[in-house]
Amino acid sequence: MNKPLSVDLNCDLGESFGAYRLGNDAQLLPYITSANIACGFHAGDPSVMRKTVQLCMKHNVAIGAHPGLPDLVGFGRREMAVTPEEVYDMVVYQIGALQAFVQAEGGTLHHVKPHGALYNMAAGNINLAEAIAEAVYKVKPEAVLYGLAGSELIKAGIRLGLQTANEVFADRTYQQDGTLTSRRLPNALISDHEEAVQQVVRMIKEGKVMSQQGQDVGIQADTICIHGDGLHALEFASHIRAALLNEGISLMAKEVKNG
Description:
Blueprint: E1 6-13, H1 25-28, E2 34-38, H2 46-58, E3 62-66, H3 84-104, E4 109-112, H4 116-124, H5 126-139, E5 144-148, H6 152-160, E6 163-169, H7 193-206, E7 208-210, E8 216-218, E9 223-226, H8 233-246, E10 250-251
Parallel strand pairs: 1-2, 1-9, 1-10, 2-3, 3-4, 4-5, 5-6, 6-9
Antiparallel strand pairs: 7-8
Helix pairs in contact: 3-5, 4-5, 5-6, 7-8
């Protein structure tokens, strides 16, 4: 008998900063199973972090740290010339900050997912990937490391004995090598929710995604990302959740072992 299909539906949250409001956090939470909370480097601030942790706990959504590069102006989506040592330090710092809020609220830190440029850099750079994985291992070894499906980050986490979750994207297109299409290029984003749903269901059920080059790419889908700052985030979340349940795919965050 085949094992029932299940998948995690995650979203980047807590990305407001000071007087600036971004995303629809409260509206999105009922649709997702895990949240990646900004830790102050690319977005977020202490008050936003605390309030987002509280919201996640209210909705029984798994809490994750979302460390990024120190680039508020560029929202952490611009590459920086950083060393593995610098990456290790900034990831430890950010995980620690969010973990303090989680602990203060009586919760548990479930996972860590790098943000933006840091995420993309670690997907292909083994040294940066190992720095991030080591930071997670040293601070919260039972946490799940989220990374681009099949990336160097996932491989680094496995080598260290971390639990990992291969992440796929509902609202992004893919290249033939399994990487995401750069946001600087046309057709990087999927704005039609039906197209997004079809892509997601196929990735889960068939383990494949159609690349921009018109060829199928093998892919493992443990967790699906919906960008909380996207124009269609709420619409995507509601449609994708309904479609997955209709396909007999259950939604749940990855169970943490020995956590």
